[in-house]
Amino acid sequence: NAGVTQTPKFRVLKTGQSMTLLCAQDMNHEYMYWYRQDPGMGLRLIHYSVGEGTTAKGEVPDGYNVSRLKKQNFLLGLESAAPSQTSVYFCASTAGHYSNQPQHFGDGTRLSIL
Amino acid sequence: DAKTTQPTSMDCAEGRAANLPCNHSTISGNEYVYWYRQIHSQGPQYIIHGLKNNETNEMASLIITEDRKSSTLILPHATLRDTAVYYCIVRVGISGGGADGLTFGKGTHLIIQP
Fold first, then answer.
1. Does residue A19 sit at the B interface (CB-CB below 8 Å)?
2. Between chains, do B99 and A44 touch, taking CB under 8 Å as contact?
3. Model confidence band, residue B94 (pLDDT cutoffs 50, 70, 90)
4. Which residues in chain B have their CB less than 8 angstroms from residue A48's CB?
5. What tens digit of pLDDT does each residue of A42-67 get?
6. Which among B87, B98, B100 is the nearest to A98, CB-wise?
7. CA distances, A62 to each of A34, A69, A112, B34, B108 (Å)
8. CA dihedral B92, B94, B95, B100 (to 10 degrees)
9. How far apart are CA A29 and CA B65, in angstroms?
10. Nearest to A38 by CA among A86, A109, A101
């Protein structure tokens, strides 16, 4: 009963390095999301996807890219990491199609940019 | 999505019912009320949602006022493990339904006292 799995759980990067965060869900959900959470704040939407091969921008998309090549996976990329991207990143998924479907979240990736 | 207002923090004695209020006076007729919680360092966890009728599941009850301008989440027998930040979110799907991300405020920090 894995649900939403995020890898890695922790990562430290230097400014300018690149990396990819992986989100995998085993619930056959159509919609997937990437959020970030900064200390003392609620989650903010970075990008989302309504299906395989589609992506869209959320509230704070700058500095990030995403891809949804397979329905079960949603990748978040940082091309050139900046200290302002130090945060906890959460992935979520939902069956979609109706507004009353809850989102299911992973346990997060804690990313520090030095 | 309509804005919600929640108290910053609340205390509750272990074993008692925890009642968490949420004000959403600008809610529209097709918007649902969702509750999520976030236990320290974990991803948000879905609790319950409703449109206009009261709802109950194994975790909690949701009471929505008749005018739908406010609601109360009830944890019937709070335990120490219920200490978390609780988010009240009002949400409507965009075209196709369900695609948009959740808008998280700062929530209510519920502390269960032994």
1. no
2. no
3. very low
4. 99-101
5. 889 999 998 999 999 998 999 999 99
6. B98
7. 13, 21, 17, 28, 29
8. -120
9. 32
10. A86
